[in-house]
Design a protein that fits this description.
heterodimer; A: alpha/beta; Rossmann fold; five-stranded parallel β-sheet; 5 strands; B: alpha+beta; six-stranded antiparallel β-sheet
Chain lengths: 151, 498
């Protein structure tokens, strides 16, 4: 199967999720798992809770919002980058926050990119398409992930 | 006269000569208090002839009110003989033949003779010294601070009026008491120790550097004080003068300021979280409005008439416009918060680069620039570029209807500051509205007449204020406008930032 490379979208805004999925559909990327906060993302990555025994392979990239209920984007980032099993998965911060403190913190925790959600929808759509193409189609994911595919 | 009597007479005469040469008045009395001898200084001092005094009781030389007491003191003195000053801690007075009283200091010494013990009293008139003391106390009373003078044992010697007032004691209640009376109980031990150490190396210094000091009033209440100590070399040895200031009001003001500062920090924090929510929470809904109205337009694409398309576009445009306003507002609050990076800047270079950058977008407009030689200033480079960019682009914008635009940039100076002005020959403004020029989102012209959202001059004002400068403008409708701003010549602290 050519397109087993999956994207994990961690985003609490229902509207943003819809607009992002619309944009990705336009470029035929449909291998997207959507979770709504950091806690759900952890459950997904660790295959526990409602994701116990999930069939989907681990993502080749995580698009991560910052401001979310329960576990925030920064906290999830900290846990992923501190865990040997997950720290090689590229994480792209995708957030409305332009706060310098958020940017600095993200990079120092090991974020692979920091993208501010463009305010106008045209740029927003263009950006999300560009990001997905880069990270899913162009970027070579870390080798560990290839062997980590589900049984 | 036999030889012994002769010797005796010679000795007596020698002794009398010796006593007469003493600087003090000398009076010699026997055990019963009868005067045996007075020297010539005593004659002068008391105004009696020797004959009038010999064999009189010594109490004749004292004011009436002290005589009775003295008789009993005299009796006890003979029981425990020894040279000593008389009436330690008491004020002593002598009485002249004419009945006038004067302050004296007396020192006593017993002399053993064949006829029993006799007492020699050296008496010194201390009227002058008392007057000096009185003057000194007057001087102390005129001091604005409370003054307390103590000896090396910590015993209070002098107290001024202010000290009576702030501690609530009468002078005589304090003289002779330990200075610790004026200090709250809990500090007594440590103060006594400090006091003793101070006497080892007395020098002028504030007391308790870095410590909070307290005084205790007679009613037991405590109050904060500031104390400065200085040693006084006197005939009685080293005394310490302490100037004490009640700083209750200052402390209260300080505390009020601290509280105020705390609440300002709190307000600032709220402002920060407010701007964070502007940047994060309010942007998303705007994007959704635009995103979903676009989606609607696509869904209905072949069914939408012209009017519906126009309405949908209006929705997106308004949302886009609002997000732009929010971006600017956010930038504006950031300018208030970020540290200034003040450096010495060459304004000629800065103006040239800002101007050249703006000229690129002018196409074929004709612009005459008159820029005088500008000074070096202390300012934040990036922020000053925002100021110049706003002022110069405004000058260009509001003169775009002129055949030939003229822009002048000049600088004058006084002792403290440089005063810059940027003048154009554009449409100017109605002077009565100039108060609105520097407000956020205030515009003097209709939206469609000139581009911009009306925050540029608010940026200018905030940036210049943060540098310790001022902004103002002059203009007249259709006669051009001049914008002024000042920058202090000396590098100042951040005057404006909370």
């Amino acid at each position: 199967m050519e397109n087993l490379k999956r994207l994990l979208l961690v985003e609490d805004s229902e509207n943003d999720v819809e607009l992002i999925l619309d944009a990705l559909t336009e470029i035929n990327i449909q291998t997207v798992d959507v979770v709504r906060n950091g806690l759900e993302a952890l459950d997904f990555l660790l295959c526990r809770g409602k994701y116990e025994g999930r069939n989907n392979s681990n993502p080749v990239v995580v698009f991560l919002d910052i401001k979310m209920p329960k576990i925030t984007g920064l906290e999830l980032l900290r846990r992923m980058k501190g865990d040997d099993n997950y720290k090689t998965i590229p994480v792209v911060m995708f957030t409305s926050s332009k706060e310098e403190s958020d940017i600095v913190k993200s990079y120092s925790l090991g974020a692979n990119a920091y993208i501010v959600k463009p305010v106008d929808i045209e740029n927003f759509t263009k950006t999300i398409k560009g990001l997905a193409q880069f990270w899913i189609e162009m970027n070579e994911p870390p080798p560990v992930l290839k062997t980590q595919n589900v049984e | 006269m036999n030889a012994m009597d002769l010797v005796d007479t010679i000795i007596k005469t020698e002794f009398q000569n010796f006593l007469n040469s003493a600087p003090d008045a000398m009076v010699i009395v026997n055990e019963s208090g009868n005067i045996l001898f007075i020297n010539s200084q005593a004659e002068k001092l008391f105004g009696y002839k020797p004959a009038e005094l010999i064999h009189q009781k010594v109490e004749i030389l004292m004011p009436q009110e002290f005589r009775k007491k003295h008789i009993s003191h005299r009796a006890s003195f003979f029981k425990e003989l020894g040279a000593r000053p008389m009436g330690a801690g008491l004020e002593l007075f002598g009485s002249r033949k004419d009945g006038t009283k004067f302050p004296v200091e007396i020192s006593l010494s017993p002399i053993e003779t064949q006829e029993g013990t006799i007492i020699s009293a050296a008496i010194r008139d201390i009227t002058d010294r008392k007057n000096e003391e009185q003057k000194f106390i007057g001087l102390l009373d005129s001091a604005p601070d409370a003054m307390v003078i103590v000896n090396d044992k910590g015993v209070m010697q002098l107290i001024n009026k202010q000290a009576e007032r702030i501690f609530g004691y009468k002078r005589e209640e304090l003289i002779g008491k330990k200075v610790e009376v004026l200090i709250p109980q809990e500090f007594h031990k440590v103060h006594t120790q400090h006091r003793e150490e101070y006497f080892d190396t007395p020098r002028v210094r504030p007391m308790g550097a870095g410590l909070e000091l307290f005084g205790a009033r007679k009613d037991g209440t405590k109050f904060p004080v500031e104390i400065s100590l200085s040693p006084l070399g006197t005939s009685k040895g080293i005394l310490i003068s302490a100037a004490i200031r009640d700083i209750t009001i200052r402390k209260k003001t300080e505390n009020d300021l601290l509280d105020l500062n705390k609440s300002l920090i709190e307000i600032n924090r709220e402002l920060e979280s407010f701007s964070y929510s502007i940047s994060h929470d309010l942007r998303a809904p705007l994007r959704h409005i635009i995103g979903f109205s676009n989606k609607l337009a696509k869904l209905l694409s072949n069914r939408l008439d012209e009017e519906s398309t126009r309405v949908l576009n209006k929705i997106s445009e308004s949302a886009t416009n609002m997000s732009m306003l929010m971006d600017e507002l956010l930038k504006f609050t950031r300018i208030g918060r970020t540290e200034l990076a003040v450096n010495r800047l060459n304004l000629n270079n800065l103006v040239t680069s800002v101007k050249d950058n703006l000229i690129k977008g002018l196409n074929s407009r004709k612009v005459t620039w008159k820029i005088s030689d500008l000074p070096h200033v202390y300012a934040d480079n990036n922020l000053l570029i925002i100021v110049l960019n706003n002022l110069i682009s405004n000058a260009l914008k509001f003169s775009n209807m002129r055949e030939q635009t003229e822009i002048e940039i000049n600088c004058t100076e006084n002792e403290e500051e440089f005063i810059f002005n940027i003048k154009d020959n554009g449409i100017g403004f109605d002077d009565q509205y100039k108060g609105n020029l520097f407000g956020v989102f205030k515009r003097l012209h209709a939206d469609d007449e000139f581009t911009g959202i009306g925050i540029g001059l608010a940026f200018v004002k905030r940036i210049i204020q943060r540098h310790g400068g001022k902004v103002w403008a002059q203009g007249e409708i259709d006669k051009g406008a001049t914008f002024y701003f000042t920058l202090p010549k000396n590098k100042k602290g951040d005057l404006w930032k909370i």
